[in-house]
Amino acid sequence: KTAKPPKAKARVKPTAPPSQVHQPASILTRVVARGRFQKVPDSLTLTAGDTLELRCRGRSVRWRFPAYLEDEDEGRLRCVIKHFERHSQLLVVNARAADTGEYSCWSFQCRDSECQDGEDRMGKAFIFITGQELFVPTEDYYEVVQLRTNHSTLLPCQVTSPLAQVTLHREFPPEEVAVDGLDISYDVKRGFVIHRPRPSYAGSLFCLASLDGMRQISTKYMLIYINYPSSAPKPTVGASAATVRAGENFNVTCTVLGEPEVMVDFTWEYPGQQIGRPPYSRERADLARRGGQVQQESESILYVDEARAIDDGLYTCSATNLQGTTTVSTRVRGPNLLPFSLLPFV
Ligand SMILES: *[C@@H]1O[C@H](CO)[C@@H](O)[C@H](O)[C@H]1NC(C)=O
Ligand SMILES: *[C@@H]1O[C@H](CO)[C@@H](O)[C@H](O)[C@H]1NC(C)=O
């Protein structure tokens, strides 16, 4: 059986006083020179061109490293991993700005094909590779970023030195964007995090880094604001009549009450569908005030003209928004094939 990487979980603060908390030694070390090892701190800064050699203690070790390193480069892997009996080695020769990121390893204990892992068998470090490039290079000249209602958003302008001063800027009109640590904050290992997206943040933004007289700008981020619903729609459905007679017109209405400016798509399934019965539907969306709150009422009405026997059955409406789809049905009793009084043998 293959062991899976440990799931990311929130760190729980120890309840015992710090002196009594067992602090396991990290299984991750760095080889600084032949035969010389160094405990790896939470973050470490190397210079472009350096060699990064990490060791992880354990018999069965897995590594995680910046995704970029997994790409082949000039026919060879930039990051070479070798497993030994009691440890594993990760080697990056001639490190570059793009190699900046988190490196982690964990070791398994496997017995009778059952593998276990735990916090004490894990090590990680954030490694900055500084040089002429202040930002970790990306492939794209600009990136489209969706800002969604109530969802925090990352602008991943990651720097290659923890000492770089980084500010956020708008392209048109050119101005610096205020970073108050509350609505927007900066994390040297990740970039800018927009905690409370607003429509006014939309537009073209970039990061500016300065260090030792160097100033560089990041990839541009094209921010698009999207009104994002808090949940999947909750439709209700009802027919204009529960029973219809032959030749009568009827309609089935599917209604969703939700947040304003959130698109809802409707699709229908109905008994006459297989034979290509052509009902038609009409949609509308209006704002409605309910209990002091403005809500959007979205509706789809399916019209069936001149009811026939085939129209008897279940009318199903599926309403979809960005959070999901909800399906509701109602039953319509259609006209019998033959009137009861004309059925033979009764
Ligand atoms: C956003 O969060 C606020 C407060 O938590 C909540 O009242 C509101 O319904 C949420 N809106 C959406 C669209 O998720
Ligand atoms: C739906 O059908 C009923 C009965 O034929 C009709 O009275 C009603 O106006 C129709 N509703 C709409 C929105 O057309």
From TrEMBL:
SUPFAM superfamilies: Immunoglobulin (SSF48726)
Subunit structure: Forms a complex composed of PDGFRL, TNK2 and GRB2.
Region (Disordered): 1-22
Protein name: Platelet-derived growth factor receptor-like protein
Compositional bias (Basic residues): 1-12
Domain Ig-like: 229-329
Family matches, as InterPro entries: Ig-like_dom, Ig-like_dom_sf, Ig-like_fold, Ig_sub, Ig_sub2, PDGFRL
Transmembrane segments: none
A matching Pfam family: VEGFR-1-like_Ig-like
